[in-house]
Amino acid sequence: MYSLHTLKPGPNSKRKHRRIGRGHGSGRGKTAGRGTKGQKARSGGRGGLKRLGMKRMLLQQPKVRGFKSIHPKPESVNIGTVAGCITVGTMVTPKSLAAAGLIPHARNGAKILGGGSCTKQLTFKDVEVSAGAKAKIEQAGGTIIARDASS
User: Fold this and answer.
1) Which end of the chain has the smaller Cβ count within 10 Å, N or C?
2) How far is it, in rounded angstroms, from Cα 50 to Cα 35?
């Protein structure tokens, strides 16, 4: 039966405390494992060492290369892709492009690029259009309604 006075620690669960600075025979005598002289060898002299390795830590950190602009860029989509997915008579806006799954979202607007061909008469509103795409849209008989300066 266990009682408070019969409890004992398990075997090998307690290590013997090493006595530091108690003579050469102890294995940790004289300088007591602190080396010779210097800030770390003194008692109470380690406070200023916290920032000693700061430069080394900074140099070891991976660097983030490049530049990320704070100005959002419009989502881009080719005119050939738009012509293949949008039906004639539909107003092509950033929201309609996002609804069709051609761009992930309409937050930053959309830009139509000149890749592919377009034979449909499409109306584009509130989108940016590259010079090549503008030529293909006008050649197919489509129109581009410019974005309002106020919005």
Assistant:
1) N
2) 19
Whole-number Cα distances in Å, 26 to 14, 19, 22: 20, 8, 6
81-94: pLDDT as tens digits: 998 888 888 889 99
The domain 75-145 is placed in CATH, from the list 3.10.20.30, 3.100.10.10, 3.10.290.10, 1.10.3430.10, at 3.100.10.10
Phi, psi for 92 (deg, rounded to 5): -90, 110
pTM, rounded to two decimals? 0.53
Between CA 34 and CA 28 the distance in angstroms is 9
E strand intervals along 84-136: 91-92, 110-113, 123-125, 128-129
Please report the pLDDT score of residue 150 as a whole number.
46
Is residue 92 a contact partner of residue 102, using CB atoms and an 8 Å limit?
A: no
Query: In angstroms, rounded to a whole number, what is the distance separating the alpha carbons of residues 17 and 13?
Result: 13
SS3 assignment for 9-75: CCCCCCCCCCCCCCCHHHCCCCCCCCCCCCHHHCCCCCHHHHHCCHHHHHHHCCCCCCCCCCCCCCE
